[in-house]
Design a protein that fits this description.
globular, Glutaredoxin, five-stranded mixed sheet, alpha/beta, two-stranded antiparallel ribbon
């Protein structure tokens, strides 16, 4: 049964239903330990600071926007190819191992993945993207938590094709036609993650 898209006012804009994270990316990335020292360390490494990267992050795309997908090397081996999502509903989830709100949502994303994978071709597709500083940090986190959902590590090439919107975690639902059905900025509650499955009904 096809469902009409939810009212735009309900898409990640209700502060009573979300933990918004205007500063969570910075806190989760360690800037709370000392902005000046962290910035110097980043500069010495030749990498932009998390604050600089977040400052350049675009807003959430408008509902109905076409979402272009990159090819993504998966941390567990293999790769995600855009053709895999053709004609299917795809949930895209950005996270980091040191993000406190992601720590609450990621278990629910994993439950969703296990449930939808059991449905085979009729279920949701899932692509998660880590924005950790190091690929090794993301991989170690996945192993520690036992998460088996498809996870890639954001690279400049991936960011150019599919830029992460401002905030963290970020959850987007791409429809069968390649257009954005739902976008959420901040932590989703368990029941809200479970409801994402309705898009594949």
């Amino acid at each position: 049964m096809a469902l009409a898209p939810p009212d735009a006012k309900m898409i990640g804009m209700n502060p009573q239903r979300r933990n918004f994270v205007a500063g969570a990316t910075l806190l989760g990335s360690g800037l709370a330990l000392g902005p000046a020292g962290q910035a110097l360390a980043q500069a010495a490494a030749g990498a932009p600071t998390p604050a600089a990267m977040e400052a350049k992050a675009p807003p959430m795309p408008a509902l109905g926007s076409h979402i272009t997908l990159p090819e993504v090397a998966l941390l567990g081996g293999g790769s995600f190819r855009p053709a895999q999502a053709e004609g299917k509903v795809l949930v895209i989830y950005w996270w980091a191992s040191d993000c406190p709100f992601c720590a609450l949502q990621s278990p629910e994303i994993h439950k969703l993945w296990l449930s939808e994978r059991a449905k085979g071709a009729g279920g949701l597709q899932l692509l998660t993207l880590s924005i950790d500083r190091k690929r090794e940090d993301a991989l170690a986190y996945l192993k520690k938590k036992g998460y088996t959902f498809p996870a890639g590590f954001v690279t400049p090439d991936i960011q150019r094709v599919l830029p992460k919107p401002k905030g963290l975690p970020i959850t987007m639902v791409r429809g069968r036609d390649g257009k954005l059905l739902q976008g959420e900025r901040g932590q989703m509650f368990a029941e809200d993650v479970e409801l994402l499955a309705r898009w594949a009904s």
